[in-house]
Amino acid sequence: MTRPVDRRALLHAALGTAAVAVLGGALTADASRQLPGPSGVLRVATGEPTAFYAAFGRLLAAELEAAYPRLSCRVRTTAGSVTNIELLRDRRADLALVLTDTALAAQGTDLFPHPVPLRALGRVYETYLQFVVRADSPVRAVSDLAGHTVSLGATGSGAAELGERILHAAGLSPGTDVPVSHLPLADAADAVRTGSVDALLVAGGVPLPTLSDLDDRVGLRFLPLAGLLPRLRGRDGLAGSGLEEVSLPQGAYRSAGGVGTIGVSNLLVCRPDLPRGVADALTRLLVLRASALVPGNAVGTQFLDVGSLIGTGGIALHPGAVAAYRSLHG
């Protein structure tokens, strides 16, 4: 639920937007040698270059390198959640920020027929699904999109997979009733501006700078999504899907305030074989350096407190994360 408070006051346990892979040797905690935390080279896989994930990833990398001088982090931009899980699966990443819904899908669905073992370091924040059309569009609900071209997010993003499910929930068949493209956010916004695409879907903080700019230039209408939530949850019967009804904050965009949409929780996940000492060190950073991990465009993102951080639904916490939380908070 959206709470009318300063989001920066809710940063007690924020982390996110990271997928990390070891280069040139194993990552080690070196606790037995009493060295200052983990060492090695980490690739931090994030999201699209202009979106929230990448901004968060750059801050995360800076904080990790400052806290652990023997650790080197290389930020990598990606399409988003699905790609990041594939990086974990292929051992080209050790950590990934993903939508909770996508992480659950990785346990064995059509999206991931071969389950990808995952462990969570925390439920780190909540973003909003934002489905927009131009303000002068006749479209006022998802069900009105028949015959209209939509961009459902870049291929490999969690929003792209959720977007197709949203269309199905509204009684529309992607590719048949609704022409679908999968454009990066910046390209999709340009396409809406020029009229070659009628609607776009993105998951992110509120306001997103790209959407704010588009709203200033052509005006936007935000389609209500909350009424479709029961059908989205019903696909798997998962109460812990990380999807919940929220309202867009007043003042976030020119006319979006109060529109009912869907909040999507985000997990920082890893493979089960991430060294326990590394998971412990990273989890401590989440809690103790949360206020330094806030991108400047994250005004509307819901950062979650420690109680919510451990609420990772169907994805079990890594033992190293459990140890860190117990040590810090009992």
TrEMBL record:
UniProt superkingdom: Bacteria
The cross-references to InterPro entries, in alphabetical order and at most eight, read: TAT_signal, TRAP_TAXI
Q: Which residues form a coiled coil?
A: none
Could you tell me which SUPFAM superfamilies the record lists for this protein? Periplasmic binding protein-like II
PANTHER family under this entry?
SLL1037 PROTEIN
- Name this protein carries in UniProt: TAXI family TRAP transporter solute-binding subunit
Taxonomic placement = Bacteria, Bacillati, Actinomycetota, Actinomycetes, Kitasatosporales
